[in-house]
Amino acid sequence: MENRNSSTADRELLLTRTLNAPVELVWEVWSKPEHIAKWWGPTGFTNTISIMDFQPGGKWNLVMHGPDGVDYPNESTFVEVVPNKKIVYEHTSYPHIIATIDFEDLGEKTGLTWHMLFDSREDFIAVAQK
Amino acid sequence: MKARRDVYQAIADPTRRAIINMIAAQPHNVNTIAEKFDVTRQAISLHVQILIDCGLIKITQQGRDRVCEAQLQELSEVSAWVEQYRQHWESKLDAMEQYIEQLKKERYGKQE
Fold first, then answer.
1. How high is the pLDDT of residue B97?
2. ipTM of the predicted structure?
3. What is residue B80's DSSP assignment?
4. In chain B, what residues touch A116 (CB-CB under 8 Å)?
5. Which segments of chain A have a pLDDT < 70?
6. pTM for this predicted structure
7. Disruptive mutation site among B84, B91, B94, B96 for chain A (greatest number of A CBs within 10 Å)
8. Check: CATH 1.20.1250.20 for B7-70?
9. How far, in Å, CA of B44 to CA of B112, rounded?
């Protein structure tokens, strides 16, 4: 179970958004590498996804190519994949993050929450400071 | 001249964070702080000194007491980093939202 009590408040990031699209479409852009590569960004970056084994225990390797020619490899493992409901992945390269994305079916809209939990406040601040 | 310590160093330690939390609610004297923690008085004095050097604590002498008061404006530097970092992730969601709109257009034609 994920832990969202106050003891994690100083090392987590929570993003929420209501999207103007049905949950099936939002799920699709999260679940296929050809879609993720198009929006993962950041602005000015391109992305190469060499592996995306979208199932619990599956690997997800994404390399962000910066505008300055620098590559930023990201390795993750999917922990939970519940179609149209939930994705949990563990970012195994630095910084270690457990990320949980919840999808809420609101008919023509979708409620999305993206929760990222860092190992420690120190990690969180060090990454934010960059 | 003493090297200026930064606020990141101040909050990198859990005991120092606990001290800040304690005196943020109410100023305390150094002895009272020391009693609340399961470490030596000396260790607390050192933590307090680092917090003073970082500008997070101001000490005033009140009679025989050295009273510690929190100076929290320094911490806003940290919240600025966190806010910037949040914007980094929010911008991914912006891009995703735009991408979804583009897909909707391609698939269903006329969308707003």
1. 96
2. 0.89
3. H
4. 89
5. 1-6
6. 0.72
7. B96
8. no
9. 61
